[in-house]
Design goal:
G-quadruplex RNA binding
């Protein structure tokens, strides 16, 4: 003997409209306005380099000023929200190759990269040449971000030297 099927109550028109409106699409459209494809690509590359959202918040300049919570929310949305992830991937694929190269040049240096740059001495009479940094790139291709150039390494090394972050500085 089965239990009788009770018809579900018919929702009122106002309730039906409210039920159809999902918060998901509202969130997607809200995020699409502030987060540009370039920001998403920069966020992804920076997090993959540093594995630290706080470092990304402090060290990356996005097109808008995002607080740490917004960066965390966007990162998790890119990872776990299929709608946002799909839209962001489609938008990033449409970026011009020159724009992608410019974004990749802004990626933060990882701790491993900076440890290798630390070993380039600063007490020599002359500054290390581009050849020194090119050699460093060739010796450690697995450590350095793929789009790093000898010039980029030299500029970062000079910044590290300026702030007394090299091993042979006091």
């Amino acid at each position: 003997v089965s239990a009788p099927i009770v018809p579900s109550p018919v929702p009122t028109p106002g309730l039906a409209k409210r039920m159809k409106k999902s918060k998901q699409p509202l969130q997607v459209t809200k995020d699409l306005g502030r987060w540009k494809p370039a920001d998403d690509l920069l966020l992804i590359n920076a997090v993959l380099q540093t594995n630290d959202l706080t470092s990304v918040h402090l060290g990356v300049k996005f097109s808008c000023r995002f607080n740490l919570r917004e960066i965390q929310e966007r990162w998790y949305a890119l990872l776990y929200d299929p709608i946002i992830s799909k839209l962001a991937c489609q938008a990033m694929r449409q970026l011009h190759p020159e724009a992608i190269a410019a974004i990749q040049s802004k990626v933060l240096f990882s701790k491993a990269e900076e440890q290798l740059l630390n070993k380039v001495g600063s007490v020599r009479a002359s500054q290390p040449t581009l050849d020194t940094f090119q050699e460093l790139l060739h010796k450690h291709p697995d450590v350095f971000y793929p789009s790093r150039t000898a010039k980029a390494l030299q500029l970062h090394w000079q910044l590290m030297k300026q702030y007394y972050l090299l091993d042979d500085q006091t």
